[in-house]
Prior knowledge:
- The structure is a single chain.
- This protein has 13 helices and 55 strands.
- A six-stranded parallel sheet has the order 7-6-8-10-11-12.
- A hairpin with a 4-residue loop joins β46 (784-794) and β47 (799-801).
- By secondary structure, the protein is of the alpha+beta class.
- The longest helix is centred in the middle third of the chain and has 21 residues, at 348-368.
- It has six domains: 5-123, no CATH class; 130-542, CATH 3.40.50.200; 546-632, Sandwich (Immunoglobulin-like); 639-715, Immunoglobulin-like (Sandwich); 722-809, Immunoglobulins (Immunoglobulin-like, Sandwich); 815-890, Macroglobulin (MG2) domain (Immunoglobulin-like).
Amino acid sequence: MGLKQGECTKAHKQSGPLLHGWVSAILVVLAAVGTAHAQDPARPAPQAKMAPILQAATAQKALRTVRVRVTDKAAFVQWAHQQLPAAGVTQPTSSVDILTVTGLPAAAIAMLAACPLVSFVDVADRLARTERQLNNSDLSVNAIAAVQARFPQLSGQGLTVSVKELPFDPNDIDFKGRVVSPANFPGPPSPHATDMTTLIGGAGNSHPKGRGVAREVRLTTSNFARLLPDDGAQLAQDEISVQNHSYGVAIENYYGLETEEYDRQLQQFPALLHVFSSGNSGALTSTKGPYAGIAAVANLTGQFKMSKNTLTVGATVPSGQVSSLSSRGPAYDGRVKPELVAYGEGGSSESAALVSGISLLLQQAYRDGNGGALPTAALVKAVLLNSANDLGRPEVDFVSGFGQADALGAIKTMRDQRFFTAVASQGNEQVFTIMVPAGQQQLKATLVWNDPAASAGAARALVNDLDLELVSRTTGQRWRPWVLSAYPHADSLVLPARRRADHLNNIEQITLAVPAAGAYELRVRGFSVPQGPQPFSLAYEVSPVGLDWVSPQSPGNVLPDAATTLRWQWSGPATTARLEYRPVGQSQWRLGNPAVALALNQVAWVVPDTTTLAQLRLVAGSLVFPSDTFAIVQAPALQVGYACPEQALLQWAKVPGVTQYQVYELGATTLVSLLRTTDTTLVISGAQLKNRYYAVAPVVQGLVAEPGSTIDYTTQGVACYFRSFLPRQLVGDSVRFDVVLGSVAQLKSATLERIGAGGFEPVQTLSPVTQTGFVMTDVPPNAGRYRYRVRLDNLAGQQFYSNVEEAFRLQAGAAQAYPNPLVAGELLKLVVNTDTPVSIRLFDMLGRFQREAEIDGVINEIDTNGLKPGLYLLRVRMANQAEQTIRIVLQ
């Protein structure tokens, strides 16, 4: 018979007094458990109830913290108090059956696993790390920019996303007005978290590159110090529908407590979607689990990414191929991981953030057409995976999953309601009919369900097993899903997918190339549903021959005289097309490339050096595919001419070929139109001065293009006209100042003033002022230290002053000390007009040596600390000069 709770206590008592310590108690318990397991083989052995990393940790001496799932919290706490008196037990979550045990000798981990009250012993929170910084943002790769251009009403409004890692910067202007409880954000902001939040929901207020996928979504933060899921009820109360996880730990290949809890939470809150980065360990080899020792496979960074009901995303480079650093599958039990890839040149962190943003747009598209209800995460996943573009080996694989995320295809699927939702039970079959028109290139269908959580330590995660099948009503022909070989051998894991029943994954996909026209049935059967009934989602699409332009999009800017990447989506046979270009308003098309491979879905194009509205087209035989109209233009850089208390002047360089400009100011959440002007300057005053952020965009042939960078006019280094006023040389035989202004608008004159006995007096005047940079000079009557400023007079009679600067007039080879006299102990400054080393020695009036130094600067400090008041002689020697003696008076 098995070991009972009372026997755990009895075993401890039989081990003798407490002075025998941990070892005797552990040995007795393990001996009893060994007997119990032999008598009841169905009971899991202690090793099977431990995370793989803990199985090798029992010989370590350091104290550990572990996490356990228990069958009876009160009984376990009592048992732990008796058996592990030095250990602490706490409850890390609202889940009463998960407890944290601290101060545990590693050797006692086996004792925990041996207790029948414990169902699994897992590692506690590990140090999470963000998975690379944001290198570049290009929303065209995954057709996000195309969605924003065609469906501008989809921007995430009314939804909330949580970014779980370190806190992002709640004061970033790209998040203005949309951060939930910004005053409660902990600690300093993380640049990585700020980048990820920008990709998900940046408004583009700082620059068009600061625009994320869902630019109106509400934003909140969560700490990844605890790797278990956040409280589901609190997430629901906060109306969070997507949580992004762009972080990882070490490679972990097992179904642990974190994995189980994520799967459990998504069964309880089916509309909540968790998106994880796959990791950047694609070149590493796992040391544990069924795939240990097989190079560059099964290297996802964290057991929580093994969960069935979340979404794990790998990274691609701009060309669309999977990055060599992107972590890949399979999951520990052979399931497909990652399920999806997206652009992330800097790592899979970026990829996950983009997919989180796309998911929000899908939720909004569904909500707006379904009375405010949110779709299940299973439906969002089905739509994402069904619309993904295949990469690498044909169909599904362990590197790119079901392919590259395609935001445009996903939004079309959701808006066109090309999906079914239903419930499956044991042995029951649901049948859905779709019609396929003639001339289609592909039929694709994807089945997804949120599967019940498996038990931590389970050898296979799948609980409810559904089967998908495609049947032609015309011919009766049947097609099964694509399934990969999960056999733990390098050659097996790269085999192409085969059609067969899938009894491992809770995602199944069928594709059919060039389907015959007619009616087809999608059949979903409950093959094994022990915890039913099981809700599921089924998305489908049929693809006719055609081409969708992805980039460029209107009103995006394409830089003149620069290389850019054109992108499209081609559905059809492999063929080439002619790329042509024309400025809008001209009838003649110009050849850009005579033979573009359409299947590559992209080509580099050198943009003409011009400013115009333009259009592209691809011509393949009789098929012609024109692009949107876009602008070839360089947005001007906004600058500050002056920033005075009563008004400020904004200015920008004229853009050739542009006669109008759109000026924006920052509104409650986004940039809003201020005015349109034909000028290249703008004076702001009054209430407008309180709004510090402005941007300007060129208007090309009536189309408002994208603006340049947004500036805070108060932080551009320009006060009231002045950018800088500095002496060209601190010491010289004359005084020369470099003056740089932000603007000369409305200026009448500029006057250099030197302070004298009666205050500042004019020494030089320039009128009119025609340049923003000029030099002003003075030759004071005597050698010494002087203070200057510049006064500007404008046409309205107002005066503006620079800061005050000092300069020294000294003949070449001369030296001067100041202040003189000075209080003993203060610093004496020695000014010399030479570029050679200087030797100084200090004597008192009796000729007694006090101190010496070698100096090589034009302004030097001499410490008088310790010297008594009196008269001193400072002797200064320079190369090729007679020694100079300066009398110094210390008071």
